[in-house]
Design a protein that fits this description.
The chain has one domain: TIM Barrel. The protein contains twelve helices and eight strands. The protein is α/β, with parallel strands linked by helices. Strand 3, helix 4 and strand 4 form a beta-alpha-beta unit. An eight-stranded parallel barrel has the order 1-2-3-4-5-6-7-8, surrounded by six helices. The N and C termini lie close together (9 Å). The protein binds 1,3-dihydroxyacetonephosphate.
Length: 255
């Protein structure tokens, strides 16, 4: 039985001062029993990472810290970028790579996502690799082709231990739309993702890899999604910006 992994992706929301307030509110909503049962990750913007990390340290909070993106080099002439080494020095635990918004708006290919994945693993951090199909791809019966290709690109020939990778299945049509995948749809595609990992990396890795669902997760649908056998966690966007909603999602994710 794996510990559920619930992560809040704050996207481009909250200044560092607002982030401080949100973490404080969240810490009032959650207790030790919640943190014993669920691993809770907060992924604020780069400008808030140091602030949130300091608060976690000083108040001995049990949140894990995540970044939303990373560059694949440790340093260099890459204006505006942030390296895995910089994130590791900030006690960041998780790094989201290949979010569909980055693939869509910033042209991130499977190849770039893979370079970031390797760099994150190389720095001793845990990548959360996002995969998912568009509405047109789903309607065209291409869900498995698209998602399977993204998963293969992430796992094929991986030097690091594949069991360390977290995958987030985020159907693009469900992100920020209020249209959640049904628990059956989420289960079906996540089980398919696990079968692709088994083909590429072996059965042990496929069993060990944690796979999250993301896309319009709310307090009202979290428990049903988490109730499916292959769903190991949730990646939450909009609802993670509301302390009461995110806390309710964490509580609903307890086994
Ligand atoms: P929403 O929960 O706002 O649909 O966003 C999901 C997401 O993209 C998390 O990474």
């Amino acid at each position: 039985m794996k510990t559920p992994l619930v992560a809040g992706n704050w996207k481009m929301h909250r200044t560092h001062l607002e982030a401080l307030m949100l973490v404080q509110q969240l810490s009032y909503e959650l207790d030790d029993f919640d943190f014993d049962a669920v691993e809770v990750v907060l992924c604020p913007a780069f400008t808030s990472l140091r602030t949130v990390q300091t608060l976690i340290d000083s108040d001995r909070l049990h949140f894990k810290l995540g970044a939303q993106d990373v560059h694949w080099e440790d340093e260099g002439a890459y204006t505006g970028e942030v390296s895995p080494r910089m994130l590791a020095a900030l006690d960041v635990d998780y790094v989201i790579v290949g979010h569909s918004e980055r693939r869509q708006h910033f042209g991130e290919s499977d190849d770039i996502v893979r370079r970031k994945l390797d760099a994150v693993l190389g720095a001793g951090l845990v990548p959360i690799v996002c995969v998912g199909e568009s509405e047109a791809e789903r309607d065209g019966g291409q869900t498995e082709g698209k998602v399977g290709g993204q998963v293969k690109a992430a796992f094929d020939g991986l030097h690091a231990d594949p069991a360390k990778v977290v995958v987030a299945y985020e159907p693009i049509w469900a992100i920020g739309t209020g249209r959640t995948a049904t628990p059956d749809d989420a289960q079906e595609t996540i089980a398919f993702i696990r079968s692709v990992i088994a083909d590429v990396s072996g059965d042990d890795a496929a069993r060990a890899v944690r796979i999250q669902y993301g896309g319009s997760v709310k307090p009202g649908n979290a428990a049903a999604l988490m109730g499916r056998p292959d769903v190991d966690g949730l990646l939450v966007g909009g609802a993670s910006l509301d302390a009461a909603d995110f806390a309710a999602i964490v509580k609903a994710s307890k086994p």
